[in-house]
């Protein structure tokens, strides 16, 4: 008996190598439904993001995904004592911002003066440091102004001059939970400004 002709392969008459295309043809609706389901589930996956916005208008200026263990520092020049202050903050396992240390170059008006509980107070050259802090901060509200050199520095080295985001104004920094689809929309909105 003679084997299949070339025209038989084109017709898809059941030759061994034509079964894969036929399988996908027969199941393309199921595969499409599976792909749509996977995309929908991924779009609903929760993400935790660090956001910076102006509380008065709610206008968003910065977004960044965060994970437990991420760290950043927030520094500024104290408006009364005119000395640098640097707070060290980490994201804990509950996605909360927790101050774990602070550095300051003066210990007078409006600045730390002593440790509390298990905190430790040290002098490091020209400044003071309080460590072993565990102060949960639900949100950070900070008035930023070019004169106060407000800076945010993440553990990966990314540095943001906060007055460059929105000018001299009050900013709100927080960690929020959003869905992947929401995050994508927020990033898109930021990118077209």
Helices and strands in order:
Blueprint: H1 6-11, H2 19-26, H3 28-43, E1 46-53, E2 60-65, E3 71-77, E4 84-91, E5 97-104, E6 120-124, E7 127-137, E8 139-144, E9 151-154, E10 159-161, H4 163-166, E11 169-179, H5 180-191
Antiparallel strand pairs: 1-2, 1-11, 3-4, 3-9, 4-5, 5-7, 6-7, 8-11, 9-10
Task: Report on this structure.
Helix content is 24%, strand content 40%. The chain has 193 residues and is α+β, with helices and mostly antiparallel strands. It has two domains: 6-43, no CATH class; 46-191, no CATH class. The strands form two sheets. The chain has a seven-stranded antiparallel β-sheet with strand order 6-7-5-4-3-9-10. A four-stranded antiparallel β-sheet has the order 2-1-11-8. The radius of gyration is 28 Å and the shape is elongated. The model has no long low-confidence stretch (mean pLDDT 83).
Broad structural category: alpha+beta
| Count of domain modules | 2
Put simply, the count of helices is 5
The global form is elongated
Helix content: 10-25%
Summarize the structure.
This protein is of the alpha+beta class and 193 residues long. It has helices spanning 6-11, 19-26, 28-43, 163-166, 180-191, and strands at 46-53, 60-65, 71-77, 84-91, 97-104, 120-124, 127-137, 139-144, 151-154, 159-161, 169-179.
What structural keywords apply?
single chain, 193 residues, alpha+beta, 2 domains, seven-stranded antiparallel sheet, four-stranded antiparallel sheet, 11 strands, 24% helix, 40% strand
């Amino acid at each position: 008996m003679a084997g299949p002709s070339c025209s038989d392969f084109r017709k898809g008459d059941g030759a061994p190598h034509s079964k894969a295309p036929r399988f996908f043809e027969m199941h393309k609706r199921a595969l499409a439904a599976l792909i749509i389901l996977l995309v929908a589930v991924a779009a609903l996956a929760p993400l935790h993001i660090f956001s910076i916005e102006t509380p008065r208008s709610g206008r968003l200026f910065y977004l960044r995904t965060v994970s437990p263990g991420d760290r950043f520092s927030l520094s500024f020049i104290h408006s009364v004592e005119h000395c640098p202050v640097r707070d060290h903050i980490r994201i804990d396992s509950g996605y909360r911002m927790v101050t774990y240390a602070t550095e300051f170059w003066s210990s007078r008006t409006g600045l730390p003066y002593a440790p509390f509980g298990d905190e430790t107070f040290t002098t490091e050259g020209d400044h003071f440091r309080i460590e072993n802090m565990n102060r949960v901060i639900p949100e950070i509200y900070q008035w930023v102004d070019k004169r106060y050199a407000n800076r945010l520095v993440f553990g990966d080295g990314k540095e943001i001059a906060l007055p460059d985001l929105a000018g001299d104004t009050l900013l709100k920094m927080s960690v929020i939970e959003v869905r992947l689809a929401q995050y994508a929309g927020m990033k898109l909105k930021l990118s077209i400004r």
